[in-house]
Write a structure and sequence with these properties.
Blueprint (H helix, E strand, L loop, with lengths): L15 H8 L4 E5 L5 E2 L14 E5 L3 E10 L14 E8 L4 E6 L12 E8 L5 E7 L10
Antiparallel strand pairs: 1-2, 1-3, 4-5, 4-7, 5-6, 7-8
Bound molecules: zinc ion.
Length: 145
Amino acid sequence: MTDYLKPLPKSDPVTAPFWESLHRGKVQVQCCGDCKIFVFYPRALCPACGSRKLAWTPVSGKGHIYSLTIVAPGRGPDIFKNDSPYVVTLVELDEGCRMMSNIVDVDAEDVKIGMAVEIVYDCVTEDVTLPKFRPVIPSKTSPHL
Ligand SMILES: [Zn+2]
């Protein structure tokens, strides 16, 4: 694995179960035991009802693009300039919470709000796996053909 020079997340006792789930290739987020909403980013209290009963729960890793911005070629911090253009997005998971990420495996100008996406586990170091998303390609075999 090559040296990864970009900023890395810092795991702490609250966020560790999220990062560990990515490392295992099975994303999980918190779900409130009282009001039943899914919560992301990880935290100690439910943002809707204040409950402390947040349980780590596996989720599908599927969702849609809620919002996006395209970082134009040559723009952004120096360490990311070779990646531009790239897409910074807010993905709304099917479970209802939103996750900031990047869209991969597609040209930036082809990414649209509402596009169906699925998680990709990007193992950037031995210890860190980042959640990224790619478009869900509709099946070419349709029962209606
Ligand atoms: Zn709640």
